[in-house]
Design brief:
By secondary structure, this protein is α/β, with parallel strands linked by helices. It has 16 helices and nine strands.
């Protein structure tokens, strides 16, 4: 774990107490209307995956009647550990940001939604809230460890006692959210940055990163690296330098997945030119999203990895709209058939066509993200896909996967 701004002063064995937190960062900051202007000047964008300007979300809620703030630490991206790391080791920085944001938008209620995965994050959040009695109405809610728990409309619906399923917008959460009230939903890491901007100002925040993508961010590095874990980096840092910070590759690299299950594979030729900021990643068809970086070594089978990821995403669907109910299972089955060497003759052409047809049609971004990942696989691993299509599983197919998922059981392929 690399220390920096967000991870400054943390311990590996337990969360910082409130007193220790104040010793490291100083007294808790005050919110107010000026904070929204400071966040805008800092150029902070959300760290939950969508990279939406934080100040715009704050302004959308500010001034509305009886708003609520929801801290989204559900971390639906399976390969990300940054938010649970913050909650588990530096919970008061997240609470500082949540309370400052609440003061800025006029909210008296804050709900901290934490992924209940046995990591200790839920317990750390509750202990931190217990140290702050009387600050504001702070409640910790443990939420399921599933993809949809991180989708903001599904999270709001679940927190309100409904099913864990997205809702169609509009109305947006800022207009009508939890308990029918205007709701600001912000990622845990985003709010930790808000806490630092409230303390140190926009100019300080911009001392790291690039002009277009200022500040630092947390990334979760895994796969074929010597020291996987959560690292704090300046936006715009070179991808190969970040891999070196994680101990360097422990296998010859075949590709690197940037952005997680909704991300993009960068091939070996792209690695030396890639920097970790959305402005420059766009040139490679990629985005940093939730800050996930997975090194795929030459000993791993990219077709098996891809089939497992797409299968997992298909299984996460709420099943309430056509692209998720029909499209994703069809893609997962076809990719599993390619992997097994039992695909239809035009399987890859069919997958490419579906990749063009699905985006923009779902109630949430699950199909869009899955198709982005699929399109990346089709471009980066065309020779491997064609070889599996003709000859079936390769020698690497039965090795332990780099990308940890529950194995997918396709409907139309024999075991």
């Amino acid at each position: 774990m690399t220390p920096g701004r967000l991870l400054l002063g943390i311990r590996d064995d337990r969360p910082l107490t409130y007193r220790e937190h104040v010793d490291v960062h100083g007294p808790s900051p005050r919110g107010g209307a000026a904070l929204i202007d400071a966040v805008a000047a800092a150029g902070l964008r959300g760290r939950g995956g969508a990279s939406f300007p934080t100040a715009i979300k704050l302004r959308a809620v500010a001034g509305r009647r009886r708003p609520i703030v929801v801290v989204n630490a559900a971390e639906g991206e399976p390969l990300s550990a940054k938010d649970r790391t913050l909650i588990r080791l530096a919970p008061h920085l997240v609470l500082d940001g949540a309370l400052a944001a609440a003061a800025a938008v006029g909210a008296r209620h804050v709900v901290v939604a934490v992924r209940d995965d046995g990591s200790g994050a839920v317990e750390a959040a509750r202990a931190a809230v217990a140290e702050r009695r009387g600050a504001r109405d702070l409640v910790v809610a443990a939420v399921p460890a599933t993809y949809l728990a991180g989708e903001e409309t599904a999270l709001i619906r679940h927190l309100g006692g409904g099913p864990l399923a997205p809702t169609v917008v509009p109305p947006r959460p800022a207009e009508r959210g939890l308990r029918g009230r205007p709701t600001l939903v912000q990622n845990a890491e985003t709010l930790a940055h808000v806490a630092l901007i409230a303390r140190h100002g926009a100019r300080w925040y911009r001392e790291a990163g690039t002009d277009a993508d200022p500040g630092t961010t947390l990334v979760t590095v895994s796969g074929a690296v010597a020291r996987p874990g959560v690292h704090e980096i300046a936006l715009g840092e070179r991808l190969d330098a970040v891999l070196a910070r994680a101990g360097g590759p422990r296998d010859q690299l075949r590709a690197v997945l940037v952005g997680g299950y909704h991300g993009t594979f960068l091939t070996e030729e792209q690695l030396t030119a890639a920097t970790l900021d959305d402005g420059r990643l766009r040139a490679h068809g990629a985005t940093l999203a939730a800050g996930v970086i997975v090194a795929l070594g030459a000993s791993a089978c990219p077709v098996t990895e891809a089939a497992s990821v797409i299968g997992w995403l298909a299984a996460q669907s709420a099943g309430q709209c056509g692209p998720c109910r029909n499209g994703l299972p069809a893609i997962a089955d076809q990719l599993a058939r390619v992997r097994a060497g039992r695909a239809d003759p035009d399987a890859l052409a069919l997958l490419r066509r579906w990749a063009r047809q699905l985006p923009g049609r779902g109630a949430c971004r699950l199909p869009d993200g899955a198709v982005r990942f699929l399109d990346s696989v089709l471009r980066a691993f065309e020779p491997e896909l064609a070889d599996h299509e003709r000859h079936g599983p390769c020698a690497s197919c039965n090795r332990p996967g780099v990308i940890p998922v529950v194995p997918y059981a396709p409907r139309n392929v024999a075991a």
